[in-house]
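Page 42, continued from yesterday. The earlier attempt failed because a stray header line got pasted into the input along with the sequence. Redoing it now with the clean sequence only.
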Amino acid sequence: MDVLINVFVGLHVIGIAALLGGFFTQMKAMGKGEARIAPGMLHGALTMLVTGVAMIGLHQADDSPVNNLKMGVKLALFVVILGITYVKRDDERVSTPLFGAVGLLTLVNIFIAVLWV
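This time it went through. Structure tokens are written below.
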């Protein structure tokens, strides 16, 4: 079971890299007000959702403790991230504050995962 969980952790990190990498590549355009949601950002967000839910299920199946409050907070932040990336995926330009919110909420989500014990 540990190997399977670690596979999903690796896939989760790949999803994070796709979402955050797409954000970082658009930062220069964001400064000009021309940022857009890259397709890889949406795919990364969906990968994070699927693998995150799978990891929670695998931990519960393995009788490992799961901090439901932490997972609820992370999911609430992630619903906002996924909502923005999904709704704005076809727009030529995304407003700077909205695009910045995607990056900021992604970073907050990462820090909650790492620092909240």
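Notes: Residues 5 and 17 are 18 Å apart (CA to CA).
Reminder to self: strip header lines before submitting.
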